[in-house]
């Protein structure tokens, strides 16, 4: 871990420069620029709010405000967006950067770090707008934002560890990329983002509680909507899984780093 942190620090200029360049390339030829970053989650929130708000607002336990379901939906979609972006991009990052890997000599582990930083910046922009919405609607609580930090760290670790592991495998078995795209679609609907977990049958609730993102999203909702503390009894298994996935990802990466360049 110390060696990894030192490597990231030594190549911090390369990492920061790559993140800046990525944003420039992504929005250079776009008239609306970074506005597209906001429009996609905003459109999802508007569609789901219009369709489900009347159905779900009465089923949110302990809330009855006009914007309660909108807040509930925003919490889930914004945090899910961070997870899905890190996972989907990490599992494809080595293939996307094949030319860079062959031409330049740099620590390959910088690539997933660049992906994670880009996703975190995207999340920070969208979340800042969400905070403004919370302030306007009278739902902002500073302590809730602070309590979200450990959940975000666990989520980033979980997504990055899984993404790197799948990214290494994807270099040798390209079906992995297609599988992840399908998996994320199912995973989204198996996470209580649009619907409320308590509205499901007990047997379905018990099954979904094995979904790590169900645990994290549920705790985000507890913290932001109900101003309750994190339920660490449910979170710690996800935290352990996140650490183990990071270890697995690093192991696969170090073992196959040279082979990946040849395969690409």
Can you offer a commentary on this structure?
The protein is an all-alpha fold and 264 residues long. It has twelve helices and no strands. The chain has helices spanning 2-10, 12-27, 35-56, 68-90, 93-96, 98-103, 110-137, 142-172, 175-189, 202-208, 212-225, 232-263. The longest helix is centred in the last third of the chain and has 32 residues, at 232-263. The radius of gyration is 19 Å and the shape is globular.
Write the layout of secondary structure elements.
Elements: H1 2-10, H2 12-27, H3 35-56, H4 68-90, H5 93-96, H6 98-103, H7 110-137, H8 142-172, H9 175-189, H10 202-208, H11 212-225, H12 232-263
Helix pairs in contact: 2-7, 3-4, 4-7, 4-8, 4-9, 4-11, 8-11, 8-12, 11-12
Largest sheet: none
Taking pLDDT < 50 over at least 5 consecutive residues as the criterion, the unreliable ranges are none
Query: Distance N terminus to C terminus?
Result: 27 Å
Q: What is the chain-wise order of helices and strands? A: HHHHHHHHHHHH
Summarize the structure.
The chain is built from twelve helices and no strands. It is mainly α and 264 residues long.
């Amino acid at each position: 871990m110390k060696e990894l942190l030192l490597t990231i620090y030594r190549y911090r200029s390369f990492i920061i420069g790559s993140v800046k360049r990525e944003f420039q390339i992504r929005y250079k030829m776009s008239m609306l620029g970074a506005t597209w970053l906001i429009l996609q989650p905003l459109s999802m929130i508007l569609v789901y709010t219009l369709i489900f708000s009347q159905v779900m607002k009465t089923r949110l336990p302990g809330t009855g405000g006009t914007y309660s379901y909108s807040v509930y939906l925003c919490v889930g979609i914004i945090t899910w967006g961070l997870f899905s972006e890190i996972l989907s991009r990490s599992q494809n990052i080595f293939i996307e950067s094949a030319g860079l890997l062959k031409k330049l000599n740099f620590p390959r582990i910088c690539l997933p770090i660049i992906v994670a930083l880009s996703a975190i910046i995207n999340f920070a922009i969208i979340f800042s707008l969400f905070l403004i919405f919370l302030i306007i609607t009278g739902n902002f609580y500073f302590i809730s934002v602070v309590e979200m930090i450990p959940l975000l760290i666990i989520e980033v670790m979980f997504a990055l560890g899984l993404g790197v592991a799948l990214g290494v495998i994807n270099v040798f078995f390209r079906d992995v990329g297609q599988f992840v795209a399908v998996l994320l679609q199912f995973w989204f609907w198996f996470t209580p983002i649009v619907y409320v977990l308590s509205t499901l049958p007990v047997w379905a609730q018990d099954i979904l509680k094995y979904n790590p993102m169900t645990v994290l999203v549920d705790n985000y909702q507890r913290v932001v909507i109900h101003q309750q503390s994190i339920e660490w009894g449910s979170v710690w298994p996800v935290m352990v899984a996140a650490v183990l996935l990071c270890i697995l990802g690093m192991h696969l990466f170090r073992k196959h780093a040279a082979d990946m360049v040849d395969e690409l």
